[in-house]
């Protein structure tokens, strides 16, 4: 999307485009809508950098509050807590250089995963195949006792260390929240998926906007294009007049 991030028609187009896409493809669309990208394609950004852009889009469209709702696993109380986009700025940055793992004579250089890597893994025939594709994607090179080896032959303890190193290299790729229940005081860990959250907010915004278009189109005989061409502040006045009869 080359228009301003807050352009209503472009955002409705984004919702249309993402309607049948996978969650990861939607994340790429949202990150792309957050503003001009660098020379690296969004799909090839580390997941954490992609998701930072997604939350930036949330800030531009809906403000800085992020409402997280989850069910307490101890007493089943449904809890909502309000975070701000700024709080996520405290998450350590994605490593700019590959990480290095050394274990039992194995040396592995690995990098953060990207949306392209995840899309490739999701096309694998089964979960084991998907895991192997992710491992192969994040391994830049691997050696055993100084000799190069493919990622596929890494023993489970080394592969597990690589997975940990990749997660530590890109902390924003999995946002873990420590929640405390206001009812029973129990605590638990939840994961926030920014793209899932922002897509849901955007879909809700889109439905409300289409409701406004519907009301004004019926009242004045305008087309959708006409309604959206009216600035939001004047549209609110017209909506008020229609509703007041
Ligand atoms: Zn509880």
How does this structure look, described?
This protein is an alpha+beta fold and 245 residues long. It folds into two domains: 8-92 and 175-235, no CATH class; 99-169, no CATH class. 48% of the residues lie in helices and 18% in strands. It has nine helices and eight strands. It has helices at 8-18, 23-33, 47-62, 115-122, 127-138, 156-169, 194-220, 224-229, 232-244, and strands at 65-71, 78-84, 99-103, 106-110, 139-144, 147-149, 175-180, 187-192. Strands 3-4-5-6 form a four-stranded antiparallel beta sheet. Strands 1-2 form a two-stranded antiparallel sheet. A hairpin with a 6-residue loop joins β7 (175-180) and β8 (187-192). α7 crosses α9 (232-244). The protein is elongated, with a radius of gyration of 22 Å. The structure holds zinc ion. The site of zinc ion has 8 residues, from loops.
Number of domains: 2
Q: What string, H for helix and E for strand, traces the elements in order? A: HHHEEEEHHEEHEEHHH
Strand tally is: 8
Mean pLDDT: 93
Summarize, please:
The protein is of the alpha+beta class and 245 residues long.
Helix-strand blueprint:
Blueprint: H1 8-18, H2 23-33, H3 47-62, E1 65-71, E2 78-84, E3 99-103, E4 106-110, H4 115-122, H5 127-138, E5 139-144, E6 147-149, H6 156-169, E7 175-180, E8 187-192, H7 194-220, H8 224-229, H9 232-244
Antiparallel strand pairs: 1-2, 3-4, 4-5, 5-6, 7-8
Helix pairs in contact: 1-2, 2-3, 2-7, 3-7, 4-5, 7-9
The structure holds zinc ion.
């Amino acid at each position: 999307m080359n228009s301003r991030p807050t352009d209503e028609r472009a955002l409705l187009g984004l919702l249309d485009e993402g309607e049948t896409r996978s969650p990861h493809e939607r994340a790429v669309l949202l990150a792309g809508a957050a503003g001009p990208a660098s020379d690296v394609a969004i799909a090839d950004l580390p997941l954490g950098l992609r998701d930072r852009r997604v939350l930036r889009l949330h800030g531009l469209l809906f403000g800085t509050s992020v409402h997280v709702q989850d069910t307490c696993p101890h007493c089943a109380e449904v809890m909502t807590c309000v975070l701000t986009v700024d709080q996520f700025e405290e998450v350590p940055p994605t490593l700019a250089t590959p990480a290095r793992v050394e274990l039992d004579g194995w040396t592995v250089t690995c990098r953060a995963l990207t949306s392209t890597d995840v899309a490739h893994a999701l096309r694998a025939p089964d979960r084991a195949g998907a895991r192997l594709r992710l491992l192969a994607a994040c391994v830049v090179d691997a050696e055993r006792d100084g000799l190069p080896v493919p990622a596929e032959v890494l023993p489970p303890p080394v592969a597990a260390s690589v997975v940990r190193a990749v997660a530590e290299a890109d902390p924003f790729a999995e946002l873990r929240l420590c929640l405390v229940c206001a009812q029973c005081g129990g605590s638990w860990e939840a994961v926030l998926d920014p793209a899932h959250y922002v897509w849901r907010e955007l879909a809700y915004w889109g439905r409300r906007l289409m409701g406004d278009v519907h009301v004004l189109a019926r009242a004045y005989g305008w087309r959708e294009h006409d309604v959206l061409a009216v600035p939001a502040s004047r549209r609110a006045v017209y909506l008020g007049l229609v509703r007041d009869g």
